[in-house]
Amino acid sequence: MPLNVTQKLIKSHLLSGEMTPGEEIGLKIDQTLTQDATGTMVMLELEAMGLDRAKTEASAQYVDHNIIQEDSKNPDDHLFLRSATQRFGLYYSRPGNGVSHPVHMQRLAKPGKTLLGSDSHTCANGCMGMLAMGAGGIDVAMAIAGEPFYVKMPKVWGIKLTGELPDWVSAKDVILELLRRHDVKGGINRVIEYYGPGLKQLSAMDRHVIANMGAELGATGTVFPSDEEIKRFLKEQDREEDWIELVADEGASYDIDEEINLSDLEPLIAKPSSPGNVVPVREVAGEPIYQSYIGSSANPGYRDFAIAAEIVKGKQIAEGISFDINPTSRQMLTDLVKESHIASLLQAGARLHQAGCNGCIGMGQAPATGRNSLRTTPRNFPGRSGTREDSVFLCSPETAAASALTGVITDPRTLGMKYPKVKEPRKPTIDVTLLEAPPPMDQAKTVQLQKGPNIASIPEMDALKDTLEVPILLKVGDNISTDEILAGGARVLPYRSNLPEISKFTFEIVDDTYYTRAMNSRDQGGHAIVGGFNYGQGSSREHAALAPRFLGLKVAIVKDFARIHWQNLVNFGILPVTFVHEEDYDKLEQGDVLIFSNVRKALQLRNELHVEVKDKNFSFSVTHALSERQIDIMLKGGLINVVKDRQQMVNA
Amino acid sequence: MAVNREHICKACDGTGMLADDEAWKYTCSVCNGDGVVMPGENTSPEAPFSVDETNRTLE
Ligand SMILES: [Zn+2]
Q1: Which of residues 28-47 of B touch A (CB under 8 A)?
Q2: Domain contains B27
Q3: Residue A507 buriedness (CB in 10 A; 0-12 / 13-18 / 19+)
Q4: ipTM
Q5: Would the pTM of this model clear 0.95, i.e. be above it?
Q6: How far apart are CA A65 and CA A216, in angstroms?
Q7: Domain spanning A268-414: CATH 3.30.499.10
Q8: Region (Disordered) spans which residues (chain B) (predicted)?
Q9: Helix or strand or coil: residue A200?
Q10: Which residues of chain A are within 8 Å of residue B21 when distances are taken between CB atoms?
């Protein structure tokens, strides 16, 4: 059967399951990337798993998020991450080297491989003929330890590109067009695969722009073929030997078909406050702006900066405008300096920032309250820019540069100048020194993890006991969010690599006595929590499961779970069960002691468990939705223990 | 409006903003962004907010 590129990538990495859309498949992961915000916990998980050395072909740790050093916490994290990469055999990308996605593409991405990253824009590397996916930190830790990644087999959404991009229209407008058509949930459970004659015109980095914002559509991944253009890119990076051809077979088909005629596109813009709120720029032209911001992982290419430089060259940006340049990789920044593009930008009035995520995630360059900010970044949900009442528009570098000149939102076609032709440097700079390669095994083994005062190892977690006798320490209502379980704010997040410390914030929003009471229950067999509908909705924060687990939470009994939190509970060995009869929720009180007997056997034999309430003439039934694989995880006390067992077997 | 220091939202420390694991900012779901939680006020989000597989809040 003729296969498309996505099917080829999945087929060659399939470890379990059937390639039927919706079925769970296990995939072999060749490469991983982690960024610093998520990476510290991943490294601590690797330590807790007892990993000797990364089992992947290449894994890289990037420091691109927390690069502002206003106290010792971030630099301490950087030291820890560097020591952990050396210990476990990972690449370490130093602060200032740039955003993970373009740096990975330049230095490590390989056609035909799989990449899993603890960053939602990992999909950007799909531009290289890879299956690149974002995932939670523990999933990536598992992949580094050589475990499969489990995901639902996606539908493949084939998008045929025809025609040619008109002047003043670029790659960003292609992905904005797709968001205009399908909005932010349009790609869920799908891999987007681009093909067709229109591809010829899109450089590898243009494809990166499009693949990056596949995340904004909610897609599992975005895949481009590995063709002559990818060969050219790799050759330019001095890595031609990493190229293989990977294109769809003659006669290959897709689960969903769609076409974009590039010739029909015009400059587009996503209005506040959703990447799916897309209209033609001309519809909002004339709106005054306060800020114009170029760069980030969504427009990281050399041409994205160079085109802006050519547009503003010899001119001055409008009065009162902040024109922010956020270089995405140091390698490209060096070339932009060499080719005088940075000079053009600075002379026009731009503000130059260090290569990293910066304002894209709200770390610096937050706009003024309520003022319009034009950005080439990937997201404009409320507050993402760092300003609570922000008003962020997403657009191409052409639109951002044109608007910086006029001070109002401007369709770049109305500037009245010729569309500048940008020449890529003939021999681009190759900068490998800031991406430190892992040391050889014998050297790696001697490396000690450098833990500053704010970094604490994950303590050992015990296996599931056969009898649980646990008090209900907390009874909560419906819609409890992960922000109520463990908030992610400026007060809390600095302790993300310190489980004992961060756990002090657990449930403090709901009941500030929980922490003390939980600590008391912890060594007496732990405790249970009872909740209503949609328990654990919201952010997929792993700490919202890990911290209660650290405090002795054994069972969560609720009316129903939010899916991602449910998954996190399983991963960290907290038994998630739901009431068979919802009215039993009303009969339970905080302080009741619940007894689960023969729970290990019961879990394996059936879905229903029987729970007795101690000293009350009352019992009730709960049910679980665990798969066989998840039951195994639960019995062992969580994923970390599963891998730890396997590492010990291998090392024995 | 002056913020009453006694009723400051514990989740966001009165800033009205939280961040997900990837450090992306979003409006605090506990105080709905005003930085204040009055006694007895329901701290659960007014409406469920959803996230995708890759840790992104879709709001
Ligand atoms: Zn708040």
Answers
A1: 28-30, 33, 37, 43-45
A2: yes
A3: buried
A4: 0.94
A5: yes
A6: 19
A7: yes
A8: 40-59
A9: helix
A10: 37-38, 118, 136-137, 488, 496, 539-543
